[in-house]
Write a structure and sequence with these properties.
Blueprint (H helix, E strand, L loop, with lengths): L1 H14 L12 H48 L3 H24 L3 H20 L2 E3 L12 E8 L8 E6 L2 E3 L2 E4 L1 E7 L10
Parallel strand pairs: 2-6
Antiparallel strand pairs: 1-4, 3-6, 4-5
Helix pairs in contact: 3-4
Length: 193
Amino acid sequence: MDQKNENKHSINDLDGTDSSDSGSGINSPDCSDLELALAAKSDEIKNLNDKYLRQAAEFENYKRLAQRDQREQVKFANENVLRELLPVVDNLHRAVTFSKSSGGSNKLVEGVELTLKQFIESLSKFGVKQITSVGEIFDPARHQAVASVEAKDKPEHTVIEEHQPGYLLHDRILRPAMVTVAAAPREEGEHHG
């Protein structure tokens, strides 16, 4: 039995408590210090968690913006090359128009027309489409006014003639259309000058 008591005392000594104590073994001032420390650590954890959530949200926003920028880059990567090809389309249009008006070889005109058609179809595969201008209200984002003409039969600011077609690349202006815009007729008593 002495050995049991010895083991009992040695275990009690390790705990730092004595089984003969009637209390819980924790002093009340130590308890309030632990509660304060626990509350401080809880606040710290809450603040760190909030910081983590904010940074995670910022990273998701950054990732979303980077992906959008990458999609835009891919979508409009050929913009400069396509813009440089538009004068070729214009010249093919002019060649067809001139050949028809001057009575050029039908086979040659036909060949140029087919080439122009194929060229326009190729451009459309890359998202290039022509802007409709004549009859539309003048839009400075889509049209470049090169002249203004008094027109009694057309509403003011209406495009009445297109000198050079404009083009869109997807939803972005590749080149504005060069147009003539209708102006309100001047009154008889108005003088220019």
